[in-house]
Amino acid sequence: MIKKICVVLLLGTTLPAGAQRLLTLDSCRQMALRNNKQIRISKVKQEVAENVRRSARTKYLPHVSAIGTYEHTSKEISILNESQKTALGNIGTSLVGGVQEGLSNVTSQLPMQNIAGLLGTMGISMEGIQTLMNQSLTQTAGQLNEKGQNIVDAFRTDTRNIWAGSVMLLQPVFLGGALIAMNKMADITEDLAANSAEAKRQATLYNIDQAYWQVVSLTHKKKLAEGYLDLIKKLDSDVTKMIEEGVATRSDGLSVSVKVNEAEMAVTKVNDGLVLSKMLLCQLCGLPVDEQITLADEYQENIAVVTVTPQLDVEKAVAFRPELKMLQNTVDLSRQATNLLKAGNLPQVALIGGYAFSNPNVFNGFEKKFAGFWNVGVLVRVPIWNWGDVMYKVRASKGATSIASLELEEAREKIELQVNQNTFRVNEANKKLAMAQASIARADENLRTANLGFKEGVITPTTVMEAQTAWLQAQSQKIDAEIDVKLSQVDLQKSLGILE
């Protein structure tokens, strides 16, 4: 019958209504790992840590950025003041006025009558010459004024609308060890995320193992309780017949009836516990809580056997426990944080370069077009005085490192104690199982003898009930011992960090 169920109820197949899903411990573990939300979160955190680490690596490489701006101002920049603009715009008028004044002074000192007479003999009048000179000076003044205005216009900046931009390159050379510390912190953070994921994986396996063996234990105890109920009911029927025949007292019948009620109550309790335990197991596996499931180990007559005494190996626990690895990561992170803070007191050097442009530009006077220039340089920053700010931060960070180191040492001591305790538990569980197996044989023989004596009429119902109770206790202790062997082995594996 069991083989038929195993063939029909394959994990992951669609089951007909009323059918039960057969689950093994391995299948429960796999489903729990797929369903656990914390494990999914851990995987996302690992991806985040990996991207942070890749981002940190880019800090070693040159970074290029572009900047563009536009600005409109209400006034433009003026190189010449208003008086200078006026003087340049009227430079011809000023010069011609000076020339005319000079000519007037000169002609006032000359014998104009003699000059006029001389010019008259040549057929030229003095008024004509003056008119010609005035026209020439006026024309010259206009030309000079125009040239002066051209100079004023040439000095106009027209900076009310400014377009500017630049492409910059920055290559870190030395940042006081900050880049190295930051990249080491990113590596440690990625390792921390992996260790955290492993810790949650082992915690999930531990929880599923606990729930699985709890269901197996309750299933076997249910069968035991039902078997005991059948035994006590049969005894109750026999005692009832004996009372009718007058070979047993009513008190004997009442005693057996009480035991029947207790057995029925025990069956009800174990049924309730089994339903709740299966709900928990289904929830951990990602199945509907009302899913009808059957566990493969429910059919095993012997859940566990006496195992070889495990060897105490504390060093393995120290090497494999993800919790210790996470604490070590915390210590390493704190140390690198200290190095990062120390970099604040060290010089920082970087290479810079780029191309800048603007419109208007001043490379060929003020021109309304884009023009720019290349540039390279070295940027050096040297901290001089910060009132001990960095020093105090470094001291605080070292204190945090000391705390993390002490927590790591304390965790190692506790894990060493845990490994020793769980090794002792495994040994004790094996001893209890061996004693329980020995008790089973005696309880079976005692019950067989009591039933035989009862049939022969030489043993009272009370003695039979005592034998049945002893048999029930022996069977229950055997189930508890077998489950304890399994759970103690799981506890030891978890304490060693090798729960697979």
Question: In percent, how helical is the residue content?
Answer: 55-70%
Radius of gyration: 52 Å
Q: If you average the pLDDT, what whole number results? A: 85
User: How many helices does DSSP assign?
Assistant: 13
Q: What order do the SSEs take from the amino end to the carboxyl end, as H and E?
A: HEHHEHHHHEHHEHHEEHH
N-end to C-end Cα span: 31 Å
Compact summary:
With 500 residues, this protein is α+β, with helices and mostly antiparallel strands. It is built from 13 helices and six strands.
Could you describe the 3D structure shown?
The chain has a four-stranded antiparallel sheet with strand order 2-3-5-6, with no helix packed on it. A two-stranded parallel sheet has the order 1-4. The two termini are 31 Å apart. Mean pLDDT is 85; it is low at 1-18. α3 runs antiparallel to α8 (178-245). With 500 residues, the protein is of the alpha+beta class. Helix content is 68%, strand content 11%. It is built from 13 helices and six strands. It has helices spanning 2-8, 25-35, 37-57, 82-89, 91-108, 112-121, 126-154, 178-245, 250-285, 314-320, 322-342, 389-456, 461-496, and strands at residues 21-23, 63-72, 161-174, 293-295, 348-359, 371-381. The longest helix has 68 residues, at 178-245. The radius of gyration is 52 Å and the shape is rod-shaped.
